[in-house]
Amino acid sequence: MATKAVAHLKQEEDRDGRGEDLPRTHKCNECDKQFRHLSKFQQHLRTHTGEKPYRCEECSNQFSELGSLKKHMRTHTGEKPYKCEECGRQFSMLCNLKRHIKTHTGEKPFRCEECSRQFSVVNHLKGHMRTHTGEKPYRCEQCSRQFSELSSLKKHMRTHTGEKPYKCEECSRQFSELGSLKKHMRTHTGEKPHRCEECSRQFSDLGSMKKHMRTHTGEKPYRCDECSRQFSDLGNLKKHIRTHTGERPYKCEECSKQFSELGHLKQHMRTHTGEKPYSCEKCDKQFSSELGNLKNHIRTHTGEKPYRCEECSKQFSQLGNLKSHMRTHTGEKPYRCEQCSRKFSRLGHLKRHIRTHTGEKPYRCERCSRKFSQLAHLKTHMRTHTGEKPYRCEQCSRQFSHLCNLEKHKRTHTGEKPYRCDECSKRFTELGHLTNHMRTHTGEKPYKCEQCSRQVSQLGDLEKHMRTHTGEKPYKCEECSREFSVLCSLKDHIRTHTGEKPYKCEQCSKQFSQSCNLKRHIKTHTGDKSYKCEECGKQFSELCNLERHMRTHTGEKSYKCDECSKQFRQLGHLTAHMRTHTGEKPYRCEKCNRQFSVLCSLKNHMKTHTGEKPYKCEPCGRQFSVPGSLKKHVRTHTGEKPFKCEECSRQFVELGQLKRHMRTHSGEKPYTCEECSKKFSVLCNLKKHIRTHSGEKP
Question: Residue 17: is its pLDDT beyond 50?
């Protein structure tokens, strides 16, 4: 199986062994070491002089050998020129490839004479030998602690320097050890490679699985010398021992409060920093206290209930809830109010009761900072943010989050409109609608986006706009699973499945699936263009078109792509651009099933089936299906070349031609062959080249 890998390794070793018969003519005066080659001798001398003549232009790191600089440069370029022929894995250094090949061959040539254990790498044997000799040659100059391996000393040094060189590309969190970063990355990827054979539960790291296995075996290898209590986890034993010693080694630098556990100090520190590092990927809710709180919360999405009552088989998502429930069987009420002696079965019920004495309001809405004395009151309030709607109208089955909202809605059935605008006498069923309407007269826009500073007149519009930043799409089509950030967009989309067009023009009987399209169409009959640009005098039939046009004067680009930071003037342009990252192609041709990321591309494509060519060239009568093609064609008559190269002043008819030409100056080759990694500046050249691999004949 590993014959290719062995042959490759042998070939490299033969290459390395060339020149073994040469005499050692170069001697170091410092340490008497001798060398066959002058270059090796010169490299060695730098170990005495400390000279590092080779400097990295990226990060200014210096090296004594050119080869070391070249290897280091690959950490910036990502180049991995050494490839394993067995599994295709690539490496930036030859030594790492050699080490990896031994995982295929199973070769372990280095053997410990003490215990006969074998190793594939000599350094692993050297490190292992110190477990027998007890040797710890690496000493920390800060605290004199000693280590058996250099890598352990380097990791330890970061506890003094605070250096965290390993950064998560997802959330920018930094780590002092590569292993810690790898474990952390699994919180983003959801990867859980370690599986319990007993119960099939999966874990992101091996240590967690080993701890979990003890819940099956009952093993508790760690014992307290004071009280003989045993623990399955060493960390738990250490924490327990502090209950005997009273030790609190972790101190808050802000308020000097001390803690027996590091985790408690970290949680406490967040009361000063306001940090909430644990975020739910489903609903973006954040937690500041413990990862366990996030895990408990996630079960509200998954519906998982791992804790089961043995009395009645009822299941619970949290252990604390099971314990509280058990008291309904035992009748135990261990929590007593000191004010009035009333007893409670749950601590939460006692705390809630005590607030009737103190007037405390500990529950705060994280969205708007409003406070409540009871969690239930907060949950009711949260519906204004989450969109939950438990109250239903008997007339039309519409649902509402608050009873008062249902009562307001009923006026749409009765026709009652008690609120009147003093400016234009328009009437409204709700006071809030009147308030929002008044802003069309005053121009007030009190709601501001903290991400891009855009201002809107209504809170609902701000919430919709915020989803352009968060990417949240809470509304899902049951037909095709496409998701939308706004409910009305989902409703409009559903009509593409049903074919429904409920909005009809009374002038020409044309029908539309959306009311906004009908309104826009009606203006083609009336000629109404009431919105005028003060800069250039151009008029528009809709306010949104004027606002969009104004950005061509101001240069404002309010919509930013979170993936590549590219900015856009229009939300539609950002939405279309995002599909270049996601690969989404929601528009499908019913004739040939070809899919498109933009609706206009589908419309243009449809003309290839219908043969429609509505755009005609007046000089020669040639017709085109797309206006852009007509514009390009007209330039063959006018000779216009509007796209000019700033480097050499050469001019081009099309923008694409200019972009291709610019690569002759920049040397950019964006098209890469996946077979041999050869790069090309033009796509057609790549296609031609690919045929040399596939054997295809054009």
Answer: no
Q: d(Cα 387, Cα 476) in Å, to the nearest integer?
A: 15
Contact in structure between 645 and 651 (CB atoms under 8 Å): yes
164-246 and 445-521 agree in CATH topology: yes
| Region 164-246: CATH code | 3.30.160.60
DSSP string, 425-446: --EESSHHHHHHHHHHHH----
> In the numeric block, which tokens belong to residue 436?
């929002």
**Whole-angstrom distance, CA of residue 546 vs CA of residue 532:** 7
Fill in the DSSP letter of residue 339.
Answer: T
CB 596, CB 605: distance < 8 Å: yes
Give the side-chain half-sphere CA count within 13 A for 240. Answer: 16
**What residues does 21 pair with on adjacent strands?**
none
Query: pLDDT (tens digit, 9 = 90+) per residue, 506-532?
Result: 888 888 888 778 877 887 788 777 778
Q: How many CB atoms lie within 10 A of CB 8?
A: 19
What does the H/E/C string look like for 532-577?
Answer: ECCCCCCEECCHHHHHHHHHHHHCCCCEECCCCCCEECCHHHHHHH
Tell me what pLDDT residue 16 has. Answer: 47
Question: Which residues lie closer than 8 Å to 552 by C-beta, 6 or more apart?
Answer: 569
Q: How far is 455 from 444, CA to CA, in rounded Å? A: 9
Neighbours of 538 (CB within 10 A): 13
Q: Cα(135)–Cα(126) distance, rounded to whole angstroms?
A: 11
**Host H or E run for residue 118:** strand 118-119
CA dihedral 488, 490, 492, 496 (to 10 degrees): 180
Q: 377, 364 in Cβ contact below 8 A?
A: no
d(CA 653, CA 221): 79
Q: Any alpha helices (H) in 246-341, and if so which ranges?
A: 262-273, 291-302, 319-330
The letter for the amino acid at 491 is: K
pLDDT, tens only, 152-202: 888 888 888 888 888 888 888 888 888 888 888 888 888 888 888 888 888
465-467-469 Cα angle (round to 5): 90
| pLDDT tens digit sequence for 93-104 | 888 888 888 888
Residue that has been written with the tokens 């309010």 in this structure: 558
Residues pairing with 629 in the sheet: none
Residues 457 and 439 sit within 8 Å (Cβ to Cβ): yes
Average pLDDT over residues 305-317: 84
Residue 242 in tokens: 């502090």
Eight-class DSSP state of 255: T
**How would residue 620 be classed by pLDDT, with cut points 50, 70 and 90?**
very high
- Measured between alpha carbons, how far is 529 from 588 in angstroms, rounded to an integer? 34
Q: Is the dihedral of CA 565, 571, 573, 578 positive or negative?
A: positive
Query: Can you give the residue ranges of every domain in the chain?
Result: 164-246, 445-521
Return d(Cα 469, Cα 449) in angstroms, integer: 10
Q: Where do the H-state alpha helices sit in 555-652?
A: 571-582, 599-610, 627-638
Look at the alpha carbons of 254, 256, 262, 266 in this order and tell me if their dihedral is positive or negative. negative
Cβ-contact 457, 479 below 8 angstroms? no
Query: How far is the CA of 224 from the CAs of 210, 230, 369, in angstroms?
Result: 20, 6, 46
Distance between CA atoms of 76 and 303, rounded to whole angstroms?
44
**Do 457 and 445 contact (CB within 8 A), yes or no?**
yes
The pTM for the full model equals 0.29
Q: Are 35 and 26 in contact (CB under 8 A)?
A: yes
Token output for 554: 């101001």
Topology of domain 445-521 in CATH is Double Stranded RNA Binding Domain (3.30.160)
Can you list the positions of beta strands (E) in 186-277? Answer: 194-195, 202-203, 222-223, 230-231, 250-251, 258-259
Start-to-end CA distance of the chain, whole Å, equals 39
